[in-house]
Amino acid sequence: MDGDGASSTGATPSEEMNGTGNLMDFLDEPFPDVGTYEDFHTIDWLREKSRDTDRHRKITTKSKESYWELIKSLLDAWSGWVVMLLIGMLTGTLAGVIDLAVDWMTDLKEGVCLSALYYSREQCCWTSNETTFDDRDKCPQWQKWAELMTGHSEGAGAYVLNYFLYVLWALLFSFLAVSLVRVFAPYACGSGIPEIKTILSGFIIRGYLGKWTLLIKTVTLVLAVSSGLSLGKEGPLVHVACCCGNLFCSLFSKYSKNEGKRREVLSAAAAAGVSVAFGAPIGGVLFSLEEVSYYFPLKTLWRSFFAALVAAFTLRAINPFGNSRLVLFYVEYHTPWYMAELVPFILLGVFGGLWGALFIRGNIAWCRRRKTTLLGKYPVLEVIVITGITAVLAFPNPYTRRSTSELISELFNDCGALESSQLCDYVNNPNMSRPVDDIPDRPAGPGVYSALWQLALALIFKIVITIFTFGMKIPSGLFIPSMAVGAIAGRIVGIAVEQMAYHHHDWIIFKNWCRPGADCVTPGLYAMVGAAACLGGVTRMTVSLVVIMFELTGGLEYIVPLMAAAVTSKWVADAFGKEGIYESHIQLNGYPYLDVRDEFTHRTLATDVMRPRRSEPPLAVLTQDSTTVEDVETLIKDTDYNGFPVVVSRESERLIGFVQRRELTVAIKTARQKQDGVVSSSVVYFTEDNPQVAEACDPQPLKLRRILNLSPFTVTDHTPMETVVDIFRKLGLRQCLVTRSGRLLGIITKKDVLRHMAQMMNQDPESIMFN
User: Fold this and answer.
1) Is the pLDDT reported for residue 174 higher than 80?
2) Which of 149, 319, 443, 558 has the greatest count of CB atoms below 10 A from its CB?
């Protein structure tokens, strides 16, 4: 294959005089299929890079020959930006459609709009002329199911009927979601981020980013979120965006034929996904850089920025929330924060870290149980049961009944004069004459106390149910449920601090900054900080998390509290285990992911890890000029290795190069079809000079120098494993050969490295399942 360090391909004059040039080197045309990889295998980054360099060099040389070639080279240079534009537009459109559909279907569980069936409750009430300011929570056009069916909106009968229909709709939505995933696209389940991370590190999972997965994931994501389960749409939107990226890669050969280049596009697509999920374009780019990407050159940074911009722009044009903002949680606080408040902010960070550690342990234990017991055989039943439990427990509590996004939005909100929420039921001072937006701290009324009880119950419910929900066979994101847990805890803490400041403003901690009659504490800010802390505890994001949070809420002056909470939650969670939820799921599934953040500190050498070990049969090798076609075919049939070293002879074991199994198979198959005289007893040559045919009756030799990689990566047997791990990580190798003074001793594959690392950490090395 081009760029594999192989020799040049043109036949030399002497070969042409012999008349054997075109026979020996029938490989002037590259093979079809060579260079593509098997499913569940790792790509060779170095090789992909050198192939792209070769392609680029060819295009540059040709562009000097004619205007047409010059135009073609310009089109090639622009194709990257075109792909980004397309990804941004499609991702933004899909996100807008998903937002609108989720809004409508979530409200459908409770009632229906009489003026237009396709309106959600909010749209219905906004367009109604009969809604008055005093009854702004009621609107005649929107009817609950009981009122529509029986004519009664109050009373026990109406409540039971509404309850029953709420549960029924939830069960219907989740059943549809899990059935579609099972039948049409099994890869559409889960959040998708662990697999995206693995794919971006150079692993091949065929069909994971396919057209069917894109279609089914989009539809089932709407159903899953609308069913009221404790899951979000943010993680799956990253998967959807990467499917869009993969779809558009197939239109350009530059990306479809090079797995390394394709991954650059997917990194940018992931940024576009987060951009529309949160309305946070810059947060999306940082998320891709910090959390999902493995190889992120500067060029990809610019392209991610562009893709995220186009996606956000498209979403803004659709305007799914009707507030001309990209986000649902936009807030405006009127008071600054004070130094003394850093104490509760840091405590919220500790809570977020503890919740993150608890969630990861609980969720991984439950997922492991699902994998190893009968539970895993009945995914549909599991989804139905969890949905049933969620809906039955969620309906009585107004804070769990509504969609999680609306809940977070209400918790982030500051209590203005026009708020009608229970959380804003404060006792007003009758002789208060202040501007509307700067309401002083007031004593809590009965509504606030009942809201606190309901929030405390909602907190326990969310903490428990999310552990069982994440990882089921439906699309399920983790960002929104984690933020909900943190926002509830934060709001409770915020109200507590606010009431303390009101009743004890003469205490030394409040004395300096909280005068009576001043607006000192904003409970909504505590909810925001709590949300960031819990999300950080689960995912271990830091920089991108803070940027996403302030883009999400528009709270630019609250960066310091957010940073304090994010860092604290990461420290606390790291004390219980280094892996975030995505790394834990990668480990659970046994994907070959070499994490850049893992330290390798053990004193082992390459010779301890290489194969063959002492008890194993010797290494399967090919010789440069004494192996027959039949020998090669037998070797391929009897082993499942990805490639074979080529040596001078079995006695000397001097290394010449490395040949990939797939290329060898295709080359022999093509030669048997296209080249006369190649039979089982033909000798395969990997040498530079032409083989001499001794007698006329000898079978025609087969020259395969072209597919030999003459510069395979080698290390000596005394290279420390620390260095080997670094080489694998930074160069993205598939395998590396071990030599001693030029003699081949063994081979180390990525799987061997991962198994060795697992063994050193006292984990089960057999859990690494793939090559």
Assistant:
1) yes
2) 558
> 543 with 496: CB under 8 angstroms?
no
Cβ atoms 706, 726 nearer than 8 A: no
Q: Which residue has the tokens 């977070």?
A: 408
The answer to whether 717 and 738 are in contact (CB under 8 A) is: yes
Q: Give the tokens for residue 365.
A: 């234990």
What is the rounded distance in angstroms from the CA atom of residue 714 to the CA atom of residue 541?
A: 36
Tokens of 102: 């989720």
Q: How far apart are CA 616 and CA 619, in angstroms?
A: 9
Q: Is the pLDDT of residue 25 over 70?
A: no
| End-to-end CA separation in angstroms for the chain | 21
Scanning 19-155, the segments in alpha helix (DSSP H) are 21-24, 45-63, 67-108, 121-127, 145-150
The three-state secondary structure class of 157 is helix
The single-letter code of the amino acid at 533 is: A
pLDDT digits (tens, 9 = 90+) for 240-257: 999 999 999 999 999 999
Q: Residue 661 burial (CB < 10 Å; 0-12/13-18/19+)?
A: middle
- 606's tokens: 């390459």
Look up residue 611 and give its two tokens.
């194969």
- The b/e string for 676-692 (b: 16+ C-beta within 10 A; e otherwise) is eebeeebbbbbeeebbe
Phi, psi of 394 (to 5 degrees): -80, -35
> Measured between alpha carbons, how far is 162 from 109 in angstroms, rounded to an integer?
9
Residues 6+ apart with CB under 8 A from 356: 482, 534, 536, 537, 538, 539, 540, 569, 572, 573, 580, 581
Q: Other C-beta atoms within 10 Å of 332: how many?
A: 12
Phi, psi (degrees; rounded to nearest 5) at 743: -90, 135
Task: Give me the residue label for tokens 């809570």.
Answer: 351
Pairing of strands 655-660, 622-623: unpaired
CA separation for the pair 492, 453 (Å, rounded): 10
The dihedral built from the CA positions of residue 85, 90, 95 and 100, taken in this order, carries a sign that is positive
- DSSP labels for 170-207? HHHHHHHHHHHHHHH-GGG-B-SHHHHHHHHTTB--TT
Which of 317-321, 695-699, 719-723 is predicted least confidently? 695-699
Q: What is the pLDDT of residues 449-505, one digit of tens each?
A: 999 999 999 999 999 999 999 999 999 999 999 999 999 999 999 999 988 888 877
DSSP bridge pairs for 444: 426
- 18 has pLDDT over 90: no
Both structure tokens of 270: 């992931």
Radius of gyration in angstroms for the set of CA atoms belonging to the chain, rounded to a whole number: 31
pLDDT, tens digit, 9 for 90 and up, residues 189-233: 999 999 999 999 999 999 999 999 999 999 999 999 999 999 999
Instruction: Enter the pTM of the model.
Output: 0.90
What span, in angstroms and rounded, lies between the C-alpha atoms of 318 and 118?
16
> What is the residue whose two structure tokens read 């999400």?
552
Burial group, residue 116, by CB count within 10 angstroms (0-12, 13-18, 19+): exposed
